[in-house]
Amino acid sequence: MDKKPTYSPEEDMLDRATGDVIELGVSSGDKGYATVTLPESDLKRDMSFLTMMGFGFTISSSWAGLSLSSIVAITQGGTATLLYGILAIALPYFCTALTLAELISVYPTAGGQYHFSSILAPEGWGRLLAYLSGFLSNFAWISSSAGTCMMAANMTVALVVQFDSGYVSQAWHLFLIYQAFNLVSMIANIFFVKRVPRVYEASRESSSACMFAEAALSSDIGIVVGSLAGCFIIPIVCLIRSPTKQDTAAVWGRLDNNTGWSDAMCFITGLVGPGWAICAGLDSTMHLVEEAKSPRRTVSRAIIATVVISLVTAILYMTAIVYCIQDLESVVNTATG
């Protein structure tokens, strides 16, 4: 049974002009016309395309994520797995982004995947598939949050080891640091999310020297500019300071398989690192559709832009970094992994 979205040109025009979601519908064939009513949101629609793109790229932060998770790919085949892994996951993730962008442009609802499943599923399967989709999406967000806090805890321990060679890391140390990051994140999301604009206001009033920084941070693209600056500054400094560079044949043409598995399986298992880092939060902007201006166009464009920026920055950043590695074995066998 074909289900086609039906909405009038007048409704679409109203959506583009005001960003209000009025009503969406699906044709149910001989059984008549079933509508999915989406009432006007009580939230303020003040998020532009640049804001949404900045939010999506902030969640992804592909180059920063790869800095923390690249060791997974390096131990599963070396730098070739890391670099080719980024390229290998680019196509499926980009196709997924195109699909989500198309769906959110037709059904601009904050529910995202579970709402799509409910509308597009065959008759009798809507509730089950919507529940499974929502459950898996929620589980993915919980897992991503846990992984992010764990990476932050690992990085904290690594910094301690770097400056204190006598320190011996224990498992319970890592666990407590991990829970501390969890606690900080929870408190920030409960009590301080709506107070962020006040930080910008305080920085403006505190000193004229902070005015430029405040203006950049409070703008729609401020967070993207900050992240992109780090993405380019760090590898440039590494390339300048590195006394020698890796041979191109070693970077791109050698697969170091020490896993005991076949080369193909070694490469596939190494995709976990790039996959986790590059497109974490692929659906994040969809869940803010009720706060977006002209949501049909804004959110779909933001999804595509986020994935493109994430993939481009990831491959450029990691290519520069791996050429600067002096001794791959010493990197893999460090005390912090």
State the main characteristics.
337 residues, globular, disordered N terminus, mainly alpha
Report on the structure:
This protein has 337 residues and is an all-alpha fold. The protein is 67% helix and 3% strand. It is globular, with a radius of gyration of 23 Å. It has 15 helices and two strands. It has one domain. It has helices spanning 9-18, 49-60, 62-75, 79-106, 113-120, 126-163, 171-192, 196-206, 211-218, 222-241, 248-253, 263-269, 272-278, 295-324, 328-332, and strands spanning 23-27, 33-37. Helix 3 (62-75) packs across helix 14 (295-324) and helix 6 (126-163) crosses helix 7 (171-192). Residues 1-35 and 199-220 have low confidence and may be disordered.
Rg, Cα atoms, Å: 23 Å
Helix vs. strand class:
mainly alpha
Total beta strands: 2
Overall mean pLDDT: 76
Into which percent range does the helicity of residues fall? Answer: 55-70%
Distance between the termini: 53 Å
- The fraction of residues assigned to DSSP E strands is under 5%
How would you write the strand order of the largest sheet?
1-2
Largest sheet: 2 strands, antiparallel
What would the principal axes of the Cα set say about the shape? Answer: globular
Q: Domains counted in the coordinates: how many? A: 1
What is the string of helix and strand elements?
HEEHHHHHHHHHHHHHH
Model regions low in confidence, pLDDT < 50 over at least 5 residues: 1-35, 199-220
Count of discrete alpha- or pi-helical segments spanning 4 or more residues:
15
